Amino acid sequence: MFEIFAQYLQSKIELSDQELKMIREVCVVRKLRRNQYLLQEGDIWRYNAFITQGCLRTYSVDDKSVEHVLNFAIENYWTGDRESLLDGTPSRFNIDAIEDSILLLINKENFARLMKSIPQFQDLVNLIFERSLVASQDRINNSISLNAEEKYFRFIEKLPQIALRVPQHMIASFLGITPETLSRIRKQSSKK
C-alpha cells in the first residue's frame, strides 16, 4: 500500500530515496471493512489519514438521529477530523467506510517531524490545506446560494467519481436535501 502513497507523493513533489524511507517508516496500514468506523464521535483523532483504496464519509448525527454528511473521500484523498487533531478535543464526527478501504495513518507527532525534515512535504501539506479551504468555501457558497437541482448537478460535475460510488441517500444528506427530492430531480433529469 505504501507504493500507492509513494506514487501520489512523487507525482506532487520530488523526494529522495532517504526521504521516502523516512515517510514509509512512520506509516501504519489500516484496513476497514464496509461500514466499519475509522473514527467515532467522542473519540480523539490523532492521525493524518491517506486513502489508498476505498471510499469513506465524514458525518455527524443530530439529536433526531438524522445523519449529516460533511465529506466523502476516495483514493488519493486525505481524511480525518482537523479540529480534534489540532485541539485534542473529542470529535463531533464519525468517519466510516462506504466500501472496503485501506488507509495509511501517520500520527500527529510523526507528521510534524516529516514536515520539519522534508520542506517539500511541508509545501505539499500547505497546498492541500489551501485547496481544502477553497473547496470548503465553494461548498458553503453552493449550500446557501443554489437550489436543490443546481446543488445536485454541481456535485455530479465536480465529483463524478464519487457520485457513482456513493448511495443516493448519502448524496442527499451531503447536499442538504431529502432523498425524495433527490429522487425527483434524478427522475426529471432522465426525462430531459
The separation of the N and C termini measures 43 Å
User: How large, in whole angstroms, is the Cα Rg?
Assistant: 18 Å
**N to C succession of SSEs:** HHEEEEEEHEEHHHHHH
Multimerization status: single chain
Mean pLDDT across the residues is: 96
Summarize the structure in short.
This protein is α+β, with helices and mostly antiparallel strands and 192 residues long. Helix content is 52%, strand content 22%.
Walk me through this protein's architecture:
The chain has 192 residues and is of the alpha+beta class. 52% of the residues lie in helices and 22% in strands. The strands form two sheets. A four-stranded antiparallel β-sheet has the order 1-8-3-6. It has a four-stranded antiparallel β-sheet with strand order 2-7-4-5. Helix 8 (168-175) crosses helix 9 (179-191). It is globular and about 55 Å long. The model has no long low-confidence stretch (mean pLDDT 96).
Structure characteristics:
9 helices, 8 strands, alpha+beta, 192 residues, single chain, four-stranded antiparallel β-sheet
Helices and strands in order:
Blueprint: H1 2-12, H2 17-26, E1 28-32, E2 37-39, E3 47-53, E4 55-61, E5 67-74, E6 78-79, H3 82-87, E7 94-97, E8 101-107, H4 108-117, H5 119-145, H6 148-158, H7 160-163, H8 168-175, H9 179-191
Helix pairs in contact: 4-5, 8-9
